[in-house]
User: Fold this.
Amino acid sequence: MLTKKSTFPAFTIIELLVVIVVIGVLAAVVVVSYVGVTEKAAAASMKSDLANGSKTLELYYVDHDSAYPATMTDDGNGNYCPTPTDTKYCIKASSGNTLTYDSTSPYDTYTLTADNPASTDDYEIVPGGVPTLAIVLPSITCPGGFIPVPGSDTYSTSDFCVMKYEAKRVGTTDSPVSQANGLPWDVRTYAYPIDNLSSLGQNIENCTGCKLITEAEWMTIAQNVLNISGNWSGGSVGSGYIYSGHSDSFGNLLEASASDDDGYYLTGNINPSRQKRTLQLSNGEVIWDFAGNIPEFTQGIIGANQQPGLAGEVNYSWKEWNNSLLLQNGLPNIAMPISTSISGIESWSSSQGIGKLRSNPGYTSTQLYRRGGGEYYDLAYGVGSCGLLSIDFDGSGPYTGARFSSPPQ
Assistant:
């Protein structure tokens, strides 16, 4: 007797492939979700450690004559304590977190950084701040006497190198040098007629592509240093004033110090004072006399009859950047401190140390930009100071120096 053969349905190859793809998609979703949750948990843990650590450091600051610890050492169990060890001020790191503490003399500021392998980001905190993303900057190679500067999206600049010190002209050479000793180079003695400014920097030894600093590069540095809490007398951005360098008549033009810890070198001032000549960048580098000591040319120019100024003004004068009339015409936005987009900067004046604008709206000649300031004018000078100068000056005008930049070498 014949019996009917039983048949069972089976998956086709296409169906199997579909199932495999679906399983793969689900697995990817699960992995991504897990990674996302893990990253968020790690970030929350790091931020919590930094916030708690900041409170501990402020207690230390109050109890130790307004100074933060010089160093913090891990005891091997995640406890970061001042050296010599004082357990009252130890900072406890959560599981998986590693803390890094950095401070330099006179220990009036610090940076506390947290790292966790489960997160692609590190976080950091400074006095008076909140935990923020730590920017890990690529390492670039610069010529001798130059320092690396992080680029800025605001000004469309990539990382570049800039002279650490105001340019010095040493001996009989026409090549400017970045070094601490020596007085700033008076560009007028070399660059008159002023058309020669465009070629300055081409002869700097061991520096490929060196040029006079551009306006975008100047403002990139200004934006950077304005955002560093340690550059402010009040210990946080916008609190007190940003240091504006040598800007009185004491000592006239000054040499720099070879020690970055001696920011008041030769000024006759001590901490606290506006006269501090050093400013720190976000990558830890220090720049000398970016504000004060001597005005510095940039490549910036402004056309005839385009200068901003006050109604009825017929002579050169110093004006506050936050005067609304200055924003109506003349200088492009990139040249103004407001372009840095720092919170509250639209209300800042020379009282915050950013300097002033010197212009004459009635002047009919093309004008050059002179940045940073110099001695004698005090509050007029700062990282945002801009004193305009006629392109047809006769070479006997105000002492003006320079600072040069280069691409990574």
